[in-house]
Write a structure and sequence with these properties.
single chain; globular
Length: 291
């Protein structure tokens, strides 16, 4: 009986602690919402600070076209497509380049100086060059698609935007890949070579698996930067869709409530992408990853 009471007490304490944590998590957002409502009422100027209920009514109806530039859901999809295109390109380039530079000291000496210099150039600073290099060409242009259901999506993924997102995501992935290759125990590599493994086998069966946990950290950081970069990428002339474009277009119409909704969805989707990546990493690399 005493054991049962002890277990019940422990269970009750855990439930109370969980409820308390949830209340504390919601406390600050609720206070911010009350403060927002108070100052919006005092200002009574929806351009400067719209009422919370106006913003929430748009937020909870993302399928509606509120400013004549497509629904929030459509613009989210286009932004995600752009981000993923640049992000996966950064992985395809950044991981092999970083691993090779980390594995081969000569390659590190040859390319580290130049790439490390370019690392400090913000993605937005590349915009004039990207416009000169790519113009308003898109994936539809690259693949010769001029009509059909896929044209709308591919035409909105401008090569200049993909390049800017690629630049933002490449450098953290590259740096972490170098560190990952350098952290692999050289005794494993030497043992594989002694046993007759080829350079290809060493790269794919020793170096890449051993470096994978550290590469994951760089990819996660790169994903966050890629998502933030899409906002500046969607300022490029020729862009007619995307959450970043929607925010700027709404600002030009003085639709501050739509600007706030766009910002909210940008933050939510960024957080959701990070959570998904953490879940995936914990599932596949559970023995290492504790992010």
């Amino acid at each position: 009986m005493e054991k049962y009471q002890s277990l019940s007490w422990t269970r009750g304490t855990e439930i109370w602690s969980s409820l308390k944590d949830q209340v504390l998590t919601l406390l600050v957002p609720l206070l911010c919402l009350l403060a927002w409502k108070f100052y919006a009422s005092r200002l009574d100027n929806p351009v400067v600070l719209p009422y919370p209920e106006t913003v929430l009514s748009i937020f909870f109806q993302p399928w509606k076209d509120v400013v004549g530039q497509g629904s929030l859901l459509q613009n989210m999809g286009i932004s995600l497509a752009r981000v993923l295109a640049g992000f996966f390109l950064a992985i395809l380039v950044g991981v092999p380049v970083g691993l090779l530079m980390g594995y081969c000291p000569l390659l590190f000496k040859l390319f580290n100086g130049v790439l490390n210099f370019l690392r400090f150039v913000a993605p937005l600073a590349w915009m004039p060059l990207t416009l000169l290099w790519f113009g308003i060409a898109s994936l539809a242009t690259l693949w010769g698609i001029n009509e059909g259901p896929a044209y709308h999506w591919l035409n909105n993924i401008k090569l200049a935007m993909v390049f800017l997102i690629f630049i933002g995501a490449f450098f953290p992935i590259w740096i972490e890949s170098i560190h990952a290759a350098q952290s692999v125990d050289r005794r494993f590599i030497e043992a594989a070579l002694v046993l007759g493994a080829s350079s290809r086998d060493v790269f794919f069966k020793v170096l890449l698996p051993g470096a994978a946990p550290h590469i994951v950290n760089g990819i996660r950081v790169g994903l966050g930067i890629a998502w933030r970069t899409v906002i500046s990428a969607e300022m490029i002339p020729g862009s007619l869709a995307g959450l970043g474009y929607l925010v700027w277009y709404s600002y030009s119409l003085w639709r501050t409530e739509v600007v706030l909704v766009g910002m909210a969805y940008i933050g939510i989707i960024g957080g959701a992408l990070d959570l998904f990546f953490r879940w995936l990493a914990q599932r596949e690399l559970h023995w290492f990853y504790r992010g």
